[in-house]
């Protein structure tokens, strides 16, 4: 297979209420089947999340998140050697996951959700994904936020968050500028971010894009799965080195078209 310019991060939601695949993979059997399929399709990283964060989603307790996550993580570690990322903003969930073989933490609050998270990541010396969001909590809203300059806002945010992370001993940082409602209910800003993505290269960090199946693509899920790889390929050309997606095979094939 042709080498891509980006690593493909496959999404595994262990939640009943995720907007596109809630309830499909939250049993052990279905989760492991999904992991095997993602690996067969060419995923480079598996991103596992046990709590939804989209509009109208509900917060869950640390205990419930661990109950959903840890048994499947333990089983997953026995069937795949791929790096496993854990999508959580809770320090204790991150700690237990890292001790059970996870390799990185995907914190959509950019270390704002739990004051203890930075120490956990520093102790384990693992990569962390810091995501920009218009909302300070893990629950995003459908507000139509306006920006004078969306990339300046994101750059200023990352300047502050990187400083905080590094001052707390974190050495491996990946930047996610956010997409969809994490930016604004107005789709134009997400597309502008993709267009201007190279501006984030000044931070000398890997850049992750997660546009897969988001409502800004328009249409039903089948249509979004067709449009997503196109936007992901453009993001890849503009500097994204990790693409977080549900549709691994199509994304990999699309990005491969831009390799030569």
Short précis:
By secondary structure, this protein is α/β, with parallel strands linked by helices.
Q: What is the C-level CATH assignment? A: Alpha Beta
| Quaternary assembly | single chain
Report the uncertain regions.
none
Number of domains: 1
Overall pLDDT metric: 92
Strand order of the largest sheet: 1-2-3-4-5-6-7-8
Second rung of CATH, namely the architecture: Alpha-Beta Barrel
Report how far the terminal alpha carbons are from each other. 13 Å
In CATH, the topology is named TIM Barrel
Features:
260 residues; alpha/beta; TIM Barrel; 39% helix
Walk me through what this model shows.
The structure is a single chain. The protein has 260 residues and is α/β, with parallel strands linked by helices. It has one domain (7-256): TIM Barrel (Alpha-Beta Barrel). 39% of the residues lie in helices and 14% in strands. The protein is built from 8 helices and 8 strands; from the N terminus they run βαβαβαβαβαβαβαβα. It starts with 6 loop residues before the first strand and ends with a helix. The mean pLDDT is 92.
């Amino acid at each position: 297979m042709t080498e891509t310019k980006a690593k493909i991060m496959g999404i595994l939601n262990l939640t009943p209420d995720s907007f596109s695949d809630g309830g499909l993979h939250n049993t052990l059997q279905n989760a492991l089947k999904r992991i095997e399929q993602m690996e067969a399709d060419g995923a480079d990283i598996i991103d596992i999340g046990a709590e939804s964060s989209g509009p109208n989603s509900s917060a869950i307790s640390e205990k419930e998140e661990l109950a959903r996550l840890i048994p499947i993580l333990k089983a997953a570690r026995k069937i795949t050697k791929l790096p496993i990322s854990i999508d959580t903003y809770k320090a204790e969930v991150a700690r237990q996951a890292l001790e059970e073989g996870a390799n990185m933490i995907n914190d959509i609050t950019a270390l704002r959700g739990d004051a203890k998270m930075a120490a956990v990541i520093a102790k384990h010396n693992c990569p962390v994904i810091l995501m920009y969001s218009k909302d300070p909590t893990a629950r995003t809203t459908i507000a139509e936020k306006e920006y004078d300059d969306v990339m300046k806002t994101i750059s200023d945010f990352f300047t502050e968050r990187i400083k905080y992370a590094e001052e707390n001993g974190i050495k491996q940082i990946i930047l996610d500028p956010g997409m969809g409602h994490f930016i604004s209910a107005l789709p134009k800003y997400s597309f502008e971010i993709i267009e201007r993505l190279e501006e984030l290269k000044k931070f000398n960090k890997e850049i992750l894009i997660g546009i897969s199946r988001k409502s800004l693509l328009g249409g039903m899920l089948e249509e979004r799965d067709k449009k997503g790889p196109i936007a992901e390929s453009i993001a890849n050309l503009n500097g994204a080195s990790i693409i977080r997606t549900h549709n691994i095979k199509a994304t990999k094939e699309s990005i491969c078209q831009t390799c030569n």
